[in-house]
Write a structure and sequence with these properties.
The structure is a single chain. By secondary structure, the chain is mainly alpha-helical. The protein has three helices and no strands.
Length: 72
């Protein structure tokens, strides 16, 4: 059993070619026309407050604590 583990550690991991990476990156990227991309997101609370006051609109604040996958 230990010999199999040792042999597995000696093998070189499979490499990803540049073409395979480009295809994988393209396949995993979210579509350009998703609706959330059209929202003018603010990165700071101060910027959001200024924009909300100027446009007389509410602020939607997304806040979380812990791991995004819920694995805490």
């Amino acid at each position: 059993m230990l010999t199999l583990l040792f042999l597995a550690l000696l093998q070189e991991p499979p490499r990803l070619s540049a073409d395979d990476f480009a295809k994988l990156h393209k396949d995993l990227a979210p579509p350009k026309d998703e609706r959330w991309r059209a929202i003018p997101w603010q990165l700071t609370m101060l910027g959001a407050r200024e924009t909300a006051a100027k446009e007389k609109k509410p602020i939607f604040l997304w806040s979380m604590n812990g791991h995004p996958g819920g694995c805490v």
